[in-house]
Design goal:
mainly alpha
């Protein structure tokens, strides 16, 4: 027991501390979710079609560019 309190008062104090800790964790979790929302959904993302430019161009790709695709 804590000094000067009954067992019931001690339990109430511990429960209050747990509730405060849970509230702090909820606020932190909400902050993380908000940050993820901003970073993942609201900030501009790189175009998906730019990924293929990083790989070396094949001989067939160069030929298609020079001669033109039959679909052009």
């Amino acid at each position: 027991m804590l000094a000067g309190g009954t067992a019931l008062e001690d339990v109430v104090l511990v429960v209050e501390e747990v509730v405060v800790a849970a509230g702090v964790l909820l606020v932190v979790a909400a902050g993380v979710l908000l940050w993820l929302l901003v970073v993942e959904l609201l900030l501009p993302q790189p175009a998906m079609s730019t990924a293929h430019r990083n790989r070396p161009m094949s001989h067939e790709d160069r030929r298609r560019i020079m001669l033109g695709s039959p679909l052009d």
